[in-house]
């Protein structure tokens, strides 16, 4: 059998730290749990985020989990965009790209995050249609998670502001 280039799990080693790592589980835990979602973010998105974050910690035992977690965070970003569209009563949008385009018609969103959301969509597409195994470092995965948390927090702050402004227009 060819060498895989990753830890080959078995009953004896699955709870041992992956030899590829150079830090303690405590340090890893602190880094992973630094990012926070605001209370303005809907509970459904919090649940998805916490599940992906909880999974990421297991990268300590199996390094490729960092990549899988990072991939999941890009999908959570899409779920957040979909939820923001729902909250703002967007017309039915089929694709992530269409949802981003619709949301960025609002100046609060377009001026600061349009390009970031487009980049996240492209990364999500790359992760969702792999042609080979992609392994990213824990630091890259954690940084991506932090950036996505910031973007999700921002989109829901904007969503609340926009929804409030729309309600004031009605009255």
Please explain how this structure is put together.
The protein is mainly alpha-helical. It has one domain. The chain has helices at residues 25-32, 43-56, 65-87, 96-103, 107-128, 138-170. α3 (65-87) runs antiparallel to α5 and α5 (107-128) packs antiparallel against α6 (138-170). The N and C termini lie far apart (70 Å). The mean pLDDT is 90.
- Give the structural class: mainly alpha
Q: pLDDT average, as an integer?
A: 90
Estimate what percentage of residues fall within beta strands: under 5%
**Count of the domains:** 1
Count of helical regions:
6
Q: Give a count of the beta strands, DSSP E runs of length 2 or more.
A: 0
Give the overall silhouette: elongated
Low-confidence stretches: none
Helical residues, percent: 55-70%
Overall radius of gyration = 18 Å
SSE ordering: HHHHHH
Distance between the termini: 70 Å
Report the sheet with the most strands, covering strand number, pairing sense and barrel closure: none
Question: What is this entry, summarized?
Answer:
By secondary structure, the chain is mostly helical. 63% of the residues lie in helices and 0% in strands.
């Amino acid at each position: 059998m060819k060498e895989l280039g990753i830890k080959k799990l078995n009953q004896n080693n699955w709870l041992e730290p992956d030899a590829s790592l150079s830090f303690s589980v405590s340090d890893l835990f602190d880094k992973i749990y630094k990012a926070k979602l605001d209370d303005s973010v809907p509970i459904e998105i919090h649940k998805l985020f916490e599940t992906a974050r909880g999974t990421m910690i297991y990268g300590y035992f199996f390094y490729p989990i960092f990549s899988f977690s990072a991939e999941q965070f890009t999908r959570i970003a899409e779920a957040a965009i979909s939820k923001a569209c729902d909250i703002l009563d967007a017309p039915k949008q089929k694709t992530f790209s269409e949802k981003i385009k619709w949301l960025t018609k609002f100046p609060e969103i377009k001026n600061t995050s349009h390009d970031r959301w487009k980049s996240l969509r492209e990364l999500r597409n790359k992760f969702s249609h792999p042609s080979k195994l992609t392994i990213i470092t824990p630091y890259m995965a954690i940084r991506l998670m932090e950036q996505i948390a910031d973007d999700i927090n921002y989109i829901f702050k904007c969503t609340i502001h926009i929804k409030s402004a729309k309600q004031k227009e009605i009255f």
